[in-house]
Amino acid sequence: MSTAARAGDLRNYALVTAAYWADTITDGAIRILVLFYFYDLGYSPLEVASLFLFYEAFGILTNLFGGWIAARFGLKSTLLGGLTLQIGALVMLALAPDPWLVVPYVMASQAVSGVAKDLTKMSSKSAVRLVVPEGSTEALFKWVAILTGSKNALKGVGFFLGGLLLTVVGFQPALGILAVFVGAALLLVLVAVHGELGRPDAKARFRHMFSHNRAVNLLAAARIFLFASRDVWFVVGLPVFLRSVLGWSFWEVGTFMAVWVIGYGIVQAFAPRLLRRHGEPTGPTAAWLAFALALLPAGIAIALAVDFDPTIVLVVGLIVFGAVFALNSAVHSFLILHYADGDKVAMNVGFYYMANAGGRLAGTILSGLLYQWQGLEACLWASAVMVLAAGAISLMLPRGARGAGVARP
Predict the structure, then answer these.
(1) What fold does the segment set 3-394 form as a domain?
(2) How confident is the model at residue 380 (pLDDT cuts 50, 70, 90)?
C-alpha cells in the first residue's frame, strides 16, 4: 500500500471513529432517558425491560444483514445508514404526542435505534482492518482495544448526558438535542469521508454470512453468554435496585452507571498493556478471564444474602466486575478480527456481533424477569452461570491466536 493510500485510510478511519463516537454517546443517553422516564411513570421492571426488546432483537438481524450489505456496497453505506436511522429513531420519540408514548411505540423506536447502533458499530470495527498491516497482531490488539475502550467510555458519557438532559430540559427536548448532534456526525461523514471504506464485492452472497470458521463460531457462542452475563443484572436489575431499594435518585443512578462504564472503557483501552506479560491473547486467555469473572457476581450475591452493606457491596463489586469484564471483552474483540477471513471481515464481524446482540437480548429480558421474580440476587446468580458457560466454550478456542479449522464455502 502506498503512503498516500495509507494516509487516506487513516484519515477516513479517524472520521468514521468520530461519527461512531457521536452515535455511541447518543445511544447511552437514549438508554438512560427511556429507562428512567418510563420507570418514573410507574412501569414495572419487566415492562421497562420490554421497551428494549426490539432494540436487541433487531440488533441480531442488523448484524446478520449489515455484514452482507457492507461486503457488497462498502462500509460507508452501512455507516451512513446507521446515522440516518438514529436520527429517525430520536425524531420518532421527540415528536410523538404524550398519549402515544406507550410500549409498542417506544419498542418500535428502539428497534430503529438498535439497527442504527449496530450498523455504525459494525462499520467502525470492521474499518480497523483498513489501517492495520496484515499480520501485525500487536498493532491490531492495540487499535481494537483503543476503539472498544473509547466506545464504552463514551457510552458512559452518554449515560451522564441522558441524566443531565432529563433533569434540565426534559424527555422530548433532550431527544431533539441528540438528533441535532447525530445530524452533525452524518454531515461530517457525507462531506469528509472519501471512497467506500474497503473494496465492495458485488459477488458477496448472503449465505456467506454464516461463518465456516470454527474459531469464529466458538467465539460467537462464548460472546452470547459473556454479554448476557453482564446485561442480566446491569440493564434493569441494578438501576431499579439502586432506585427503589437503596433510594438513589435517577440522577445519582445515571451518574454512577456513567462513571462505571467510563472506567470500564478505560480498562479496555489499556488491556494490551495490562495483559502484556501474558503474551498475545489466545482462546485460553479468554477462558481464564471468564472463570475469574464468574467469581464476582457469585460473591456479590452471597454478600447481599448475608446482609453486608448493599451499597458498599454493589459499588466495590461492580468496579471489580467491570475491570475483569473489560479485559475479557477486549480479548474477544481482538480475537474476532484476528480469526476473521481477510476477504470476509465485514461478514465475519457482522456474524459475531449478531451473537453479541443475541446475548444482550437474552440478558435484557432475563434482567427484568428475574428481578421481578426473585430480585437482584437471582440476576447475579444467573450472571455467574452464564460466565461459566462462556469460559467453558472458550476452552475450545485455538491455543494460538490464529483460527484453525477454516472450511471454505
Answers:
(1) Growth Hormone; Chain: A; (1.20.1250)
(2) very high
For the chain, what is the radius of gyration of the CA atoms? Answer: 20
Structure pTM? 0.73
Residue 262 CA neighbour count, 13 Å, CB half: 14
CB atoms near residue 125 (< 10 Å): 26
With left for phi above 0 and alpha for psi between -120 and 50, is residue 200 left, alpha or beta? beta
The model's pLDDT over 129-170, given as tens digits with 9 standing for 90+, comes to 666 666 666 777 777 777 777 777 888 888 888 888 888 888
Which pLDDT score, from 0 to 100, does residue 390 have?
96
